[in-house]
Amino acid sequence: ADVIYVSDIDEKKAQAEQLDLMDSTAFLPRPTRVISVGADYEVLARADVIINAAGDITKVATNRDGELYGTTDIARTFVGRIAAAGFEGFWINVSNPCDVVTRLVHELSGLPSNHVLGTGTSLDSARLRRAISQRTGLSIQSIDAYMLGEHGASEVAAFSQVSIAGKPLAELAVERPGRFGFSGDDVERDGLNGGYDIYNTKHCTEYGICSTAARMVRCIFNDEQRIMPASMLLDGEYGEKDVFVGVPVLLGKNGAERVLELPLTAEELANFHKCCDDVRKNIKTAEGIAAAECK
Fold first, then answer.
1. Helix 122-136 with 207-221: angle, nearest 10 deg
2. Could you tell me which residues come within 8 angstroms of residue 8 by beta carbon, excluding any fewer than 6 positions away?
3. Are the C-beta atoms of 165 and 139 separated by less than 8 Å?
4. I want to staple 34 with a disulfide (CB 3.0 to 4.6 A). Which of 21, 160, 181, 282 is the partner?
5. Which of 106, 151, 203, 273 is catalytic?
6. Is residue 151 among the annotated active site residues?
7. How far is 91 from 68, CA to CA, in rounded Å?
8. C-alpha distances in angstroms, 274 versus 168, 218, 268?
9. pLDDT, tens digit, for every residue of 7-57?
């Protein structure tokens, strides 16, 4: 990026982040300006992409829904202001519960759905691939695997669609059971709980999620036409409508350009529908919070 704006309601923290990032620019391949804007949110309307990571990580220690009561309130303080200032770029939401907050950002921003996406199950999919890599000894880049649904407890591993260099894992498990015949349930558990395993020891997860968001930004900036899992508004795909959840998405200069539908098994699809219903329950909870505060 040519310019990075750092925004935080704690202006001293924003300034400290600015200085830390400025130190890093000495090692970048091109000049990059870093500007702290504090809570002057309207300045962000100049940006091409905004990454929302506002929240309190301590509230998500055991459940990504734990931040629901804070992150939705926080988003309401700035998304509308940035929209009113004329922002026409792209939102990438990190804040949890990711799918609920992404939907709220979409509503408050007034932007088309392709301009608003969440990191969703992209990091969870990376954790799933990492778990398979650890069991097989193969490079994570050679493994194609997706976690689908909410970025939360009900997400689903599309285990039937896992492949390595184009060959289905199910076939490899028959040919070489000693190397590829591991438990799908165990691998799915690693994809789901990987974040908590990290958090419980170091009290944050930073490298995976920052790399996820940065990769999405590059896909948009460079029109990469790359397929990544992301939280996107479904409009009939997978038999679901009007819900943001993590699915494989084509990312390019137009943002989230389209959803790719995987041929899931009946069980996987049923679990996916249940997952979408869980996201809807959280949306109703968030709407209830907002209604109560208005009273």
1. 120
2. 14, 17, 38, 39
3. no
4. 21
5. 151
6. yes
7. 19
8. 26, 32, 10
9. 999 999 999 999 999 999 999 999 999 999 999 999 999 999 999 999 887
